[in-house]
Prior knowledge:
- By secondary structure, the protein is an alpha/beta fold.
- The protein folds into 2 domains: about 15-245, TIM Barrel; about 255-340, Immunoglobulins (Immunoglobulin-like, Sandwich), CATH 2.60.40.
- It is about 25% helix and about 25% strand.
- The protein contains 9 helices and 20 strands.
- It has helices at about 1-10, 40-55, 60-70, 90-100, 110-115, 125-130, 160-180, 195-205, 240-245, and strands at about 20-25, 30, 40, 55-60, 80-85, 105-110, 135-140, 185-190, 210, 215-220, 230, 245-250, 255, 260, 270-275, 290, 300, 305-310, 315-325, 335-340.
- The strands form 4 sheets. Strands 1, 4, 5, 6, 7, 8, 9, 10 and 11 form a 9-stranded mixed beta sheet that branches. Strands 12, 14, 16, 19 and 20 form a 5-stranded mixed beta sheet that branches.
Amino acid sequence: MRFLLALLLSGVVLSASADHAVILMYHHVDENTPASTSVRPEQFRRQLDYIQENGFVVMPLKELLDAIYGGGEVPENAVAITFDDAYESVHRVALPELVSRAMPFTVFVATKAVERGYDGSMSWQDLAELADSGLATFGAHSISHEHLLRGSETGVTDDWTKRVSAEIDHSAAVLKQKFAELFVPAFAYPFGEYSPALQALVEARNYYGLAQQSGALGASTATTEIPRFPMAQSYDSLERLAMALNTRPLPVADVQAGQMFIADISAAPQELRFTLTADGPYRREQLACYSSTGEALALTREAAQFTVALPPFRAGRNKVNCTAPSTERGAEFFWYARQWVLADDEGRWLKY
Length: 352
């Protein structure tokens, strides 16, 4: 482990392929906001310095996504920087640091908080100053930032479809009106919660759908299930940043995961199954899977099929991460993450 961390931090850029990329996700950049969604300003500066000093190419989000999915040119070591919720510290703290390094970034805006001047949110003037930097673009994050899956526990109804469609369409329309060509056709799911029904609404609008589970993306990544590495105080060390930046998508297939949105605990899956061929540049025999708490999960293999024993689910978001080391580069990992959302007996689930 010490060798791995030393290698990651040595300034050696390990990711040489141009068929994948990594997206980083931030919320607050502040000292006095919730640790679970915050990176301290000094650590944010260190992260940007690491990115800049180690040969990573920060791309505008739309340009990166269009290149990945359109077969375009993707620079080696490509990364995009995103912020969810349009918190004021992005304007006050993050903007000067990004401008000084000429790094493009995207802010996903829940428009109600801005329109009503909620404490801790940017104003439209703040967002306009981001736009004036020439580095910012903007994507939709709903109107209300509520749990959009609520109301679809027992099935999709016309009322649910209308309500959630309005959350997507109104927030996007406001951003298009204010920022025109700086609008990115992408929707970041509030709380990172999504379901096949919500994905279908996003796909029908030809939007990309951005999630909050970790992992890299490639051309085979679903366009409405794009992973991002969350950056927060428990996960913001330079070691973890280096690991994230040197990640590639693990090409699992034939995934059997049960329902993604679970209305009743009795329907929670007991296992996750997928196939992973032996012809990739990864060490399949060293595949390991972990719960969101870091617990190593029992893993069995039969030929190319793997079965992961899932832990008991709790109300809210439940995630499993599976990784395999590269055969080509000592500090590079292939990564696959899966998420489920479980409603409790009253149809509620956890917030941050």
